[in-house]
Amino acid sequence: MKQSITLGKVTRIIGISGFLETTKSLFTGKLGKEDFRNFLRKVIVPLASIVLFFGLWHLGAKTLFNIEAEYRINKALEEQGPEAAAQVEACIASGDISCQPNTLPSPSQVWDSYKTLLDDHYAISADKVAFKEKTAALNAQRIANGEAPIVYTGRPSFVDQILTSLKTVFAGFLLAFLIAVPIGIVIGLSKTLRSSVNWIIQIFKPVSPVVWLLLVFMIVKTLTKNSNADNAFIISFISVGLCSMWATLVNTAMGVSSVDKDYINVAKVLKLGPVQKIFKVILPSSLPLIFTGLRITLSVAWMVLIAIELLAQSPGLGSFVWEEFQNGAVDSNSKIIVAMFVIGLIGFLLDRIMLTIQKMISFNKND
Question: How far apart are CA 219 and CA 238, in angstroms?
Answer without folding.
Answer: 11
